[in-house]
Amino acid sequence: MRRLVVNTLTMAVLAVPALAFDSVTVTVSGIADEDKREAIEKRLKSVALTSQALEQEESDAAVIFGSARSDYSRMVSVMYGEGYYGPSVSVKIDGREAADIDPFTLPKSIDKVTIAVEAGPQFTFGKTQVGPRAPTANANPIVEGFVPGAVAQANLVVSAAKAGVQEWKVDGHAKASVKDQTIIANHPKRQLNAEVVLAPGPLLRFGSLSIDGERNVSNKRVRQIMGFPEGEVYNPDELRDAVNRVRRTGTFSTVSVREAETPNPDGTLDYQMTLIEEKPRRFGLLAEYDTLDGFTVGGYWIHRNLFGGAERLRIDAEAANIGSDKLSDAGGIDYTASLRLTRPGSFGHDNDAFFFATYEDTNDPDYTEEAFSFGVGVTRYFNEDLFGQVAGGLRYSHSVDVFGDREFYHAILPARLEWDKRDDPGDATRGFYLDTLATPYLGLDDSQSGMVATVDARTYHGFGESKSFVMAGRLLLGTVVGSDLDQTPPDFLFFSGGADTVRGQKYKSLGVDVGASEQSGGRSFVGVSAEARYWVTSTIGVVGFADFGFVGPDSYPTDAGDSQSGLGIGVRYATPIGPLRVDLATPYTGQVKEFSRVALYIGVGQAF
Asked: φ and ψ at 57, to 5 degrees?
């Protein structure tokens, strides 16, 4: 019986699974400010390789041990970055110091890793010198915070050295570099003395450019698009702009530029560009759904190099309101199709010439309209964030609405200015976006003249180091001036309601009351949206939002107009192509106020 009991207990012990790696703890001591200490602890844990191993559910003891040994230097590096140059770091594996464990006699399994950091005193800068400075340098200090008496963050020394080199490069010294550096931590005085010596090198000019790689675009066209500043005094911004012009075409998957190791005897510096073309054709698909307005499906097809000169042909098509809820009065299916042919590097390196054609078949609750427009225009790129365009063309439309069966003939002059300073267009956490569009139209064959203009302004502000909480706001403005309400093409007028304006309200449910229970679009529009976005985890986020819309009969908001609003909540799921968006919204104020009715919206990317 005793042997049976022993054998049973032995088998039970052997059956217990090995302890799994399930814990990484990081603590910091020696910092009085609790908020600062917690922030440093969070940063230390985020860079710890053992934390990354835990997230990846690593179980190999050798991998975890290697990560723990590497974490010593990673912890020290973070503390240097915060100005602590005498930290004490302990990394323990199941209670044993990782540095004392023989790598040839590792434990079979590891349960937890404990990292303890004693910060020690925080250092300040003593001597801060970078030189010689470029003649045109005017920043003093060279970088913010790199001054005697300031907290001696290690990254500021690196930033100051880079800034000094960049000043010389902007002045035309392409080969400027760091010649020498002396960095001394004075522990008794708790000071860090930093001295960086720069080597400016000679003043240089852009030399010749050679182009190679797998491509069908000729060298002549590449040079027309690029605008390489051969013969001009070197400037890194000029080189960057020239390379960005080639990338902007979308024709090439690889655009790399390499400068020669040594300048030419005449003071010029040669460059070599390597280009590899993308596959010439590409297509994409679009799908959105909401319970009131039904499905929206669409797609596009692109040819990146149509005639061998990096010309870009794009064809888009879309169908909306498919299978819409009959109770929503969403009208019939709307169809749009457009074609745009762009030739980069026309009339100047930063200009693209284009031809456009658009067909629209709109079947909305209050009107139907078929419209066709075409024309030519030019896009001007002012910088990486700002571009404008102007075009001229003709537009014909046939509409049936509360004002009758009508035809319109117009010469149009659409102009646009877009300024995008968002960090991520699909899921912004900071910055702003501004898109303005004005289309003057000249009436032909008794059609009235006027102008329709819109403004789309968005702003974003993220909180905390990780920007997991974001407040987002949007303002939409629209106006029609010149033509009378009953002499304006319906597609130029404004409605409110639906996914693009006020979520929860019926699609284009708010317009201008013209009597007999009929409505048309308005000549003025104001839309406001606010969202509070919070990422609970790295992949799951929640959103609360409110939308407001106003439509009026005049060119500017007056008491004659009416408004509506909606409230809702949503969920976001991070994907490689952007957040998957699921929103639930209900009407709040306006002609419709039905809290029992909830609209569901599904799409990819944030709502704005």
From this structure: 55, 45
